[in-house]
Amino acid sequence: MSETSPRTPRDPGNPDFDAMARDIAEVPAVEVIVTVAVNLMSAAAVKLGLTEEGDQHKDLDEARKLVHALAGLLDASATEISSFHAAPLRDGLKSLQLAFREASLVPDEPGKGPGEKYTGAVYG
Length: 124
Description:
Distance between the termini: 58 Å
Largest sheet: none
Shape: globular
Helix content: 55-70%
Number of helices: 5
């Protein structure tokens, strides 16, 4: 920080980005990948109407994007995370893909559903 720039006090409205960068630097990559995957899974479940609110937040177009992004992340990180982490994430992905197929009024052709570009066709 230059001497001419004013320092601002640290408060909740003024995040300390240096401290945040130090904190994230301490987190192993596997944990970051798993956290992002779980967030994508949770968001997709909401958009599929699988939460207590059900159809209130249902949006299949948004769900498709989230499931596809999750599949891409898992495909890209498959060699980077252990099967201990990958197996439950793949199971969750398959469940979301099946839920998407069930929620669709006109189901996609096998292999054309969200994320199936990465996982192959998903059958119930």
